[in-house]
Amino acid sequence: MTVSTVKTDHASAAVPPVARPTVSAHIIKDAAEAIAIAHALAAEFARDSSRRDRERIWPVAELDAFSQSGLWSINVPKAFGGPELSYATLARVIEIISAADSSIGQVAQNHLGVVAAIRTVSDADQQKLLFAEVLKGTRFGNAFSEFGSKRAADFETRFTDAGDHVVVNGRKFYSSGALLAHLVPIVALDDEGRAWYAIADRAAPGLTVIDDWSSFGQRTTLSGTVIIDNVKVPKTHLVPGYKGYDKPTADGAIFQIIQVAVDTGIAQAAIDETVGFVRTKSRAWIDSGVDNAWDDPYTIQAIGDLTLRLHAAQALLEKAGHAIDRAVTEPTAETVAHAQVVTAEAKILSTEIAIAATNKLFELAGTRSTLAEHNLDRHWRNARTHTLHDPVRWKYSILGKYFLNGENPPLHAWS
To answer: Which positions fall inside the Acyl-CoA dehydrogenase C-terminal domain (predicted)?
Structure first.
């Protein structure tokens, strides 16, 4: 029996690159504009989100609208022409988009994380070059993780020096956004075992992106296998990512807070779906003594509980954003550890509420909510898939060690 209907019929074929944008992206002025644009886009993205999930339709037009809106450059520094908005605002934007379509919200994660890393580790000339690309609307993809390594931070992909460029070889998986990216940052090691972002052109000879992502959730994150066969990357696009972790910086917390925002967005969507279904389709239980499902006292209590827990996760998400802002401007062991810890707290609550809300949806809405025509299981599938990033059991360890023994979290992209 086949449970998944995900279409990967042409998984062995290379996906051709997409064209760069012909006009520069919008540049957002302030936080209010960013939130307003996010809400407007989310209203559009939500319309066909269920169909995209069911049929695994790539969000091509949606992604173009998203990246051209200016939301993909909101953490570009003002010194280089960007908005440089708060990470609390950035997280709220991702949450809003993810409530409409969590796959689209996730696609932006690594792009925004790489933008943050460039700010942290690149020299002024490289920042000017790469930030100019971002402001044009150029999208970074992701070729970070590898499928067969012992641990997530173990990389076999390497590059060799070839004068004015490097030559990269390796194989990647979990490459969210790579299918429709314009540039693909590849995590590759140098001769000293240090990890760099080798930012390759999506159309570079030897760079092959394969559409073989077959997960039951987050189906349209534009992920899959990336094969890197003697890919040339100019040294202007070789970013020393390792420098973001050889001393305290906010880089790891930035990658993490975006994961949190995706999960709170999924939780918000599930709660909204539950309320909508109970208000319009569910029947009152036979022993409840009420005529309407929304008057069921147990349902009322459950919605109150779920909403409270979501609000707690959102409050920690906002707090984490402000802690990251401070760690970006004042990077010390103390400010960075605080940002990591608050983000870990938010990650725990966001994971728990995403799983609880997507599961409770069916209990409260009733058997009718499981019908295929509603496709409400996509929220649970998305939550279960996405919350597997950076397991919360290790977040509890971070908190315990910090508060009990004064031990700061490790410096890497998963902490």
So the answer is: 258-390
Range of the domain at 92: 14-136
- Same domain for 217 and 332, yes or no, is no
Q: What is the mean pLDDT of residues 372-395?
A: 96
Q: Are residues 238 and 255 in the same domain?
A: no
Tokens of 35: 């939130």
Residue 127 lies in a domain: yes
Bridge partners of 200? Answer: 184
Global model pTM greater than 0.85? yes
H/E element holding 200? strand 195-201
Q: Which amino acid is at 210?
A: I
The pLDDT tens digits for 167-189 are 999 999 999 999 999 999 999 99
User: Is 146:170 a contact under the CB 8 Å cutoff?
Assistant: yes
Q: Are 266 and 382 in contact (CB under 8 A)?
A: yes
β-strand 183-189 against 207-210: which pairing, if any?
unpaired
146: in domain: no
pLDDT (tens digit, 9 = 90+) per residue, 90-116? 999 999 999 999 999 999 999 999 999
What is each CA distance from 238 to 4, 166, 200, 234, in whole angstroms? 39, 8, 9, 7
| Residues counted in the chain | 415
The pLDDT of residue 10: 47
Which of 207, 224, 242 finishes a domain?
Answer: 242
Q: Do 238 and 259 have their domain in common?
A: no
Question: Using CA atoms, how far apart are residues 364 and 361, in angstroms rounded to an integer?
Answer: 6
pLDDT at residue 5 tops 70: no
Q: Give the type of residue at 134.
A: V
Among residues 280, 277, 407, 287, the alpha carbon closest in space to that of 344 is found at 407
CATH of the domain at 221: 2.40.110.10
DSSP H/E element including 380: helix 377-386
Last residue of a domain, one of 205, 226, 242: 242
% helix, strand, coil for the chain, step of 5? 55, 10, 35
